[in-house]
Write a structure and sequence with these properties.
Layout lengths: L5 H10 L8 H4 L2 H11 L3 H9 L2 E4 L13 H16 L2 E7 L3 H6 L2 E9 L8 E8 L3
Length: 135
């Protein structure tokens, strides 16, 4: 099933998963929503998380464009990294390939990468699993 298809959205709604609010106009229209859905669709990432064992999982981190570059996201990552260090485990997250440089600056490393096909787009994108961030 392709992310962004009618079947995909039906499956998401019938699964009882918590809906994610995303302002379509602000975030780039339907194309952005399809990309977001594609990044969250595949159960193989659940398996990859399970294979990592104990960890602190960072589900979603986003900063409003007006506040980017001011260190807010880094501070939040540091809080979680301190909790992980206290518990003796790593932090783990998934992100689009575009965000990899930011997370690498914060002490994360790529542990896997996969290509994502998005309905209505020719190019798609890539998703990376990253671990690290411990203090």
């Amino acid at each position: 099933m392709k992310a962004g298809s009618h079947r995909y959205y039906y499956s998401l709604v019938s699964s009882g998963a918590a809906p994610v609010y995303m302002d379509r106009e602000y975030c780039g229209g339907d194309k952005a929503v399809r990309r977001f859905a594609a990044l969250k669709q595949d159960s193989q990432w659940d398996k990859k998380r399970e294979e990592r064992g104990r960890m602190w999982y960072i589900g979603i981190l986003g900063t409003h464009p007006s506040f980017q570059g001011k260190g807010y996201a880094r501070r939040l990552l540091d809080v979680v990294a301190n909790w992980a260090a206290r518990d003796g485990v790593e932090c783990y997250l998934e992100c689009s390939v575009d965000n990899v440089p930011f997370y690498e600056k914060c002490g994360y490393r790529i542990i896997w990468r996969t290509d994502i096909n998005v309905v209505g787009e020719d190019s798609g994108t890539s998703l990376c699993g990253m671990a690290g961030g411990c203090k």
